[in-house]
Amino acid sequence: MKLYTYWRSSAAFRVRLALALKGIKVEHVAINLTQGDQRTAYYTEINHQSIVPTLEDGGLVIRQSVAIFEYLEETYPEPPLMPSDTAGRARVRAIAQAIACEMHPRLSSRVRSHVAEKFSDQARIEWYAYWALQGFSALENWLASDPNAGHFCHGDTMTMADCFLIPQLYAAKRYELDLSAFPTLLAVKAACAQHPAFLEALPENQPDAR
Predict the structure, then answer these.
(1) Edge to edge, what strands does the sheet with 27-30 contain?
(2) Are 44 and 27 within one domain?
(3) Same domain, 132 and 71
(4) Per-residue pLDDT averaged across 106-127, rounded?
(5) Cα separation, 39 vs 31, whole angstroms
(6) Tens digit of pLDDT for each residue in 162-204?
(7) Within 10 A of 163 (CB to CB), how many other CB atoms are there?
(8) CA-CA distance, 44 to 48, in Å (whole number)?
(9) Residue 208 · residue 30 · CB < 8 Å
(10) Structural domain of 32
(11) Alpha-carbon distance 205 to 179, whole Å?
(12) Number of domains in the chain
């Protein structure tokens, strides 16, 4: 199994967390997004969108982090990263998709680069801060008021929701955002940090980290 990844990619970080939690060992193939590796003929044959991550399992190629996550959950069900009940699974998917579909698209490196190119680097920083804080505020209010939350986003076991939240919080550190207004999210992050899989998946612990 191969994972095409970039150490700073939030989407790739999600998948690395899932792999580490499930104890699945993969070959890491570094795609340096800052040097344009994603636009080479070699990689565009693998991923037509020129993004990471991409997972290869035998002859199967899976693109998009949500699809990869669900493939891993269905193919390698132990340990489970989704609740056993229908309502719980729906809740976890909703949290993950709030991040993957609402927050991340506005904060991706492609969008940030475009904002900087069209306007200025300061505009890029302000854009990121505005949309990141909007997203974190909504998630904080959600989790803080929901009795289904526990040490983690859903109960006391790491799930898909945590795998999607942690990379977004980690990325906010690069922009030195003040996250003190989000104690529930920070508590989840602290709980996740106690798990060995967290250390294994951290960006700075990847072979291509710079």
Answers:
(1) 27-30, 2-5, 54-57, 60-63
(2) yes
(3) no
(4) 83
(5) 10
(6) 999 999 999 998 888 999 999 999 999 999 999 999 999 999 9
(7) 28
(8) 5
(9) yes
(10) 2-79
(11) 23
(12) 2
Candidates 108, 26, 13; CA nearest to 65 is 13
Whether residue 83 contacts residue 92, with contact meaning beta carbons closer than 8 Å, is answered with yes
pLDDT tens for 138-148 read 999 999 999 99
Check whether residue 9 and residue 54 sit in a common domain.
yes
Q: Tokens representing 82?
A: 């989704």
* Average pLDDT of the segment spanning 20-47: 95
Residue linked to tokens 């949309």: 131
Tokens of 85: 């009940």
> Phi then psi for 2, rounded to 5 degrees?
-120, 140
Same domain flag for 28 and 58: yes
Given a cut of 80, whether residue 107 has pLDDT beyond it is no
| Nearest one of 160, 159, 157 to 67, comparing CA atoms | 160
